[in-house]
Amino acid sequence: MGCLLIAGGTGMLGKQFIAQEGHRFSDIRLLSRTAGTVDGHTQFVWDPATGKYDPRAFIEVDYILNLAGAGIADKTWTTARREEIISSRVNSLKTLLKAVRETGARPKMVLTASATGYYGNRGDEWVNESSAPGASDSFLATTCMHWEEAAAGFERDGYPLAIVRIGIVLSADGGALPKLLLPLKARVSGYFGDGSQ
Prior knowledge:
Helix content: 25-40%
Distance between the termini: 41 Å
Number of strands: 10
Shape: globular
Number of helices: 4
Strand content: 15-25%
Largest sheet: 8 strands, mixed
């Protein structure tokens, strides 16, 4: 039990987490770009791009879950979109850390998403949590390195931190699956990768 604050709680993963694990918490609060209530959970306004947040969201918070960030599979990776993917993740964590510092919140745990893209394409090499990141010319590995470095600020401040490296999200409601299935509407398909994965 306790109070959980979720950044990115109105997204696909956030909604699923609440549906599956929400019963474990006495209060769930959401950080969102709009105020209101979703399924009985209060949304507090924040804007990670400018570092603004509603301090009321952090009162007596026990846990923080960060799932915020621009969708990887939502749009073409133009230069601007790549910058948005990285900055949305880094700024979300910077704003959360700023809020914790300024409000005096004392979360028992901060859990933040990252991605398996951290490892880059390693071929047949086995990797684990202690493996080095992928090559610096890999966009996903670079994104994850920036993402996790921003998260490390919590650990440096003495808060328990857990980073979960999530793989490709497959759901009919969003993520990569609808994009992968799109060619099937034209009755064509291919395979994902070069066949050696």
